[in-house]
Amino acid sequence: QPVQATLQPPETVPGFTTVIGEIHESPGDFEGQTVEIIGYFRGWDLLGEAGEGPPVTRSDGVIKDNSGAIYVTGMQPEGLDPASKEQVETVVRLSARIAKQGEAVYLEALSVQVLPDY
Question: pLDDT per residue over 57-95, tens digit each?
Fold first, then answer.
């Protein structure tokens, strides 16, 4: 029986934030605040890390830092394909506002920048 290879990034990456885990732990404390996150661009949740489906539109993307993954609406980094598994290791810096829709917590992108030298 063949073993299927899976992409397993290290548990923690130096310089990555731990903001996403804090947001998930107490979303009400953060709603409306602006945060900066450094983490992996995960496209359309290509690795299935964000849990539920996209909260706002089908084109919502996912970012993953050292503490978890979360959906982002309005994030489309220039030159990145949200359907490409080859790009899930791309590091981005995201500035975003924390929002809730029902029980779903997500980020509204204000700016996103690819960090090519990471």
Answer: 999 999 999 999 999 999 788 899 999 999 999 999 999
pTM of the model: 0.88
Asked whether the predicted pLDDT for residue 2 surpasses 60, the reply is no
Q: Residues near 41 by Cβ (< 8 Å), separated by ≥ 6? A: 61, 62, 63, 77, 80, 87, 88, 90, 91, 92, 114
> Which residues sit opposite 39 in a β-bridge?
92
The string of DSSP codes covering 44-76 is TTTTS-S-S--SS-TT-EEEEETTEEEEEES--
CA distances from 31 to 59, 63, 70, 76, 108 (A): 22, 18, 14, 22, 11
**Are the C-beta atoms of residues 70 and 106 closer than 8 Å to each other?**
yes
d(CA 106, CA 96): 9
Q: In whole angstroms, what is the distance from residue 118 CA to residue 109 CA?
A: 21
68-73 and 104-114 beta bridge pairing = parallel
